[in-house]
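Example for tutorial group B:
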């Protein structure tokens, strides 16, 4: 029967093999998939992805023990300007360790901050290149901050002290200007920075007419954690946002992509407030200057007009006399012309009336003679048609109900008829 091993013996064998075959330390390039600290120790999940598909091709666990982690952590922050966080690429010096209870792990002895800094710079340059190719890198800076920028949308942490500092700085400005602020809370450090700020911008965009500009500030966050502000999607949103965006992320050493593409970059929330107060003060000074210029120009214009009116007042009497003389002569001429024209019209009318009178008399006489002759002819015709002439010749006229009777068959029995003769009237009854 073959010999069997206990698990402890087998793990011990593996430990010896690992220690014999991998006795050295190795510099390894990997991405931080996860990182957390516990009991002063740091536990890291390392990953390597395919460049084109981001598909993981290798994974490993790594640890940095407490006695070494404080030194490694401090050196990295001092060299890279920010702590090691998830998503970073890092160059780690490790050695292999196999523990009978906990299995295999890479033990971290050092991390090169210059490698991470170079990777971050490369990532930042790539984002800048993409934004410039898309033609949006300078879009937000091309916007104009409204002259009276007093309605401020603020993206900051919900409980961040920086938001309070920002509001207090605005409220206590030395000029007494009024500002209205509204907070749109977001995660401002760690993994959720990019998505949180994008969601806040979307909420502001839904009420775009209520604001003049946007202030993004980290307030009381860590001054070294800037990785969340170097994200392509966030940069696109800020670059294309229709309102000017002011960043006050609170750092001095490096400039994030968000700072590069925003309308205005300042260091702290209070500096952002000072910028808005100073902008409004400049507008106020400009208005005062314009007011003074308007008053000065108006005063000078009124003085010039008074001088002109005084000069005209002196000239008006003499000018009026000249005008009066000219107008009087003109009116006299017009009156004479009108009188002459009226006389000519009256004379012409009288001549026409006389001519018409001379022509009317013979025409009227001829008309009377013609009409008299026509009346005589009508009288003769009327006399010839007079019924009395017929009666004198022996004829009679029979009437029924006042009408001449032509057909005796139309009379009913008992009808009363009248017969007119030359010398009398006969009344008869039809039987």
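The residue assignment follows.
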């Amino acid at each position: 029967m073959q010999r069997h091993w206990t698990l402890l013996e087998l793990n011990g064998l593996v430990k010896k093999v690992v220690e014999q075959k991998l006795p050295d330390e190795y510099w390894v390039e990997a991405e931080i998939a996860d990182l957390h600290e516990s009991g002063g120790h740091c536990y890291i999940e390392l990953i390597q992805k395919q460049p084109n598909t981001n598909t993981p091709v290798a994974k490993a666990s790594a640890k940095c023990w407490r006695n070494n982690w404080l030194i490694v952590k401090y050196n990295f922050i001092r060299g890279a300007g920010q702590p090691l966080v998830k998503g970073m690429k890092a160059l780690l010096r490790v050695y292999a360790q196999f523990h009978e209870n906990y299995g295999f792990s890479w033990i971290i002895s050092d991390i090169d901050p210059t490698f991470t800094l170079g990777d971050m710079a490369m990532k930042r340059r790539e984002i800048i290149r993409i934004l410039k190719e898309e033609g949006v890198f300078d879009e937000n800076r091309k916007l104009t901050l409204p002259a009276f920028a007093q309605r401020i949308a603020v993206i900051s942490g919900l409980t961040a002290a920086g938001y309070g500092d920002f509001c207090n700085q605005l409220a206590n400005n030395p000029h007494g200007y009024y500002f209205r602020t509204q907070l749109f809370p977001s995660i401002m450090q760690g993994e959720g920075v990019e998505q949180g700020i994008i969601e806040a911008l979307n909420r502001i965009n839904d009420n775009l007419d209520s604001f003049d500009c946007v202030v993004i500030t980290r307030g009381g966050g860590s001054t070294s954690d800037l990785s969340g502000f170097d994200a392509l999607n966030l940069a696109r949103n800020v670059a294309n946002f229709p309102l000017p965006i002011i960043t006050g992320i609170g750092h001095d050493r490096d400039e994030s992509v968000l700072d590069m593409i925003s309308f205005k970059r300042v260091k702290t929330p209070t500096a952002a407030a000072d910028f808005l107060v100073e902008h409004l003060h400049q507008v106020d000074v400009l208005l005062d200057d314009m007011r003074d210029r308007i008053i000065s120009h108006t005063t000078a214009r009124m003085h010039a007009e008074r001088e002109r009116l005084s000069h005209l007042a002196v000239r008006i009497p003499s000018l009026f006399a000249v005008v009066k003389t000219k107008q009087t002569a003109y009116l006299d001429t017009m009156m004479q012309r009108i009188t002459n024209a009226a006389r000519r019209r009256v004379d012409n009318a009288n001549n026409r009336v006389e001519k018409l009178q001379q022509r009317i008399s013979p025409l009227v006489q001829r008309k009377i003679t013609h009409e008299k002759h026509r009346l005589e002819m009508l009288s003769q015709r009327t006399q010839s048609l007079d019924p009395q002439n017929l009666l004198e010749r022996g004829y009679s006229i029979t009437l029924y109900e006042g009408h001449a009777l032509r057909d005796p068959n139309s009379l009913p029995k008992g009808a009363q008829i009248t017969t007119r003769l030359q010398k009398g009237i006969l009344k008869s009854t039809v039987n």
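Confidence is low (pLDDT under 50) at residues 220-224. Compare this with the pattern of hydrophobic and polar residues in the output above.
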